[in-house]
Amino acid sequence: MEVVRKKAPVLYLVIPCYNEEEILEGSMDILSDKIKRLIDKEVIDPLSKVVCVDDGSRDRTWDIILQGSKKDDVFRGLKFSRNYGHQNAILAGMLESRRNADCVVTIDADLQQDIEALDDFIAKYMEGCDVVYGVRNNRDTDGAAKKLTALAFYKLMNNLGAKTIPNSADYRLLSKKALNTLAEYPESNMFLRGLIPTMGFRSDIVYFDVKDRTGGQSKYTLKKMINLALDGITSMSIRPLELIMIAGGFFCLLALVIFITAIIDWARGNVVQGWTTMVALICLIGGMNLITTGVVGLYVGKAYIEAKKRPRYIIDMMIWDGSDDTEKD
């Protein structure tokens, strides 16, 4: 039986911020205006807010969030004790917001993701969806290298058994029910783009356009993208370990063939013949051993981190319920 919601929801927008002083004030003005327009149209409840999460910025990002919250009551803020990463910033904002919100939408601070698509997200929520994925219409704003690697990443993830939405972003809506379920996942290595689809709630897709940045530079460096890909693969799939086992079986068979060939050559008196092949295979197998040991070590390291059960993030300060800048107990 489909559920259709009738009451305008309390919406919380979660904005992860890392060294965003160049664009944050302008983004906050746009977000405030959008929230007020949605309230005026009675699409969302007047108690709706914008939560800015400072992910250990080294510039004036937190000061801008603090000033914005004093100027406009629509803003709330969380400040990490250090940089914990984009995924943890999103997670912290969502989990803190679920106490007050009926649904939460996450969007990047540069607002390259079309803010006007919020109307469509809320419409899908009102139709009964607990998860609404934002999917890019195209990647025209990406460079050729990023476009190619992004497409390869999603294809690789799905081939490795991780269920992801191609061209999806961290622009998504989650209902309170979905947020409460997400809070039950205890792992430290969070890959939200792969984890959320596993919850199985009713979902839909909203397509949006991507705009050019109005200032500053993207904080998602190549190193961070590689780390995100590694986290995604190792936290959502054990297929690499299965592939290692298959490769190991293949090289064992290959070694058996080489051994039989070597015996035949020895019997014929061709002792030196095949030397180049043997050296090449030794180097190849040695390299494969190093790669497979590294992959296994990566999984062991992830398990080691999970076993410690350290906090995924530490909130140093927060601005909530109209309060001033206060330390988090």
Description of the molecule:
The structure is a single chain. With 329 residues, the chain is of the alpha/beta class. It folds into two domains: 11-218 and 311-327, Spore Coat Polysaccharide Biosynthesis Protein SpsA, Chain A (Alpha-Beta Complex), CATH 3.90.550.10; 239-308. 47% of the residues lie in helices and 15% in strands. It has ten helices and nine strands. The protein has helices at 24-40, 61-71, 86-97, 118-126, 144-159, 176-182, 192-195, 222-236, 239-268, 275-308; strands spanning 11-17, 49-54, 75-80, 103-106, 131-136, 168-175, 203-208, 315-319, 326-327. It has a nine-stranded mixed sheet, sandwiched between helices. Helix 2 (61-71) links the parallel strand 2 (49-54) and strand 3. Helix 9 packs antiparallel against helix 10 (275-308). It is elongated, with a radius of gyration of 25 Å.
Under the CATH scheme, which architecture of the largest domain would be assigned? Answer: Alpha-Beta Complex
Q: CATH first level of the largest domain: which class?
A: Alpha Beta
Fraction of helical residues: 40-55%
How is the quaternary structure best described?
Answer: single chain
CATH superfamily of the largest domain: Spore Coat Polysaccharide Biosynthesis Protein SpsA, Chain A
Which sequence of SSEs, written as H and E, runs from N to C? EHEHEHEHEHEHHEHHHEE
Question: Low-confidence spans: pLDDT under 50, at least 5 residues?
Answer: none
Our estimate of the beta-strand percent is 15-25%
What is the count of DSSP helices, taking H or I runs of 4+ residues?
Answer: 10
- Gyration radius, to the nearest Å? 25 Å
Strand order of the largest sheet: 7-5-6-4-1-2-3-8-9
What distance lies between the first and last C-alpha atoms, to the nearest angstrom? 44 Å
Q: Under CATH, the topology of the largest domain is which? A: Spore Coat Polysaccharide Biosynthesis Protein SpsA, Chain A
Major β-sheet annotation: 9 strands, mixed
| Net shape | elongated
Indicate the mean pLDDT: 80
Tally of structural domains: 2
Instruction: Quickly give the structural class.
Output: alpha/beta
Say how many strands there are: 9
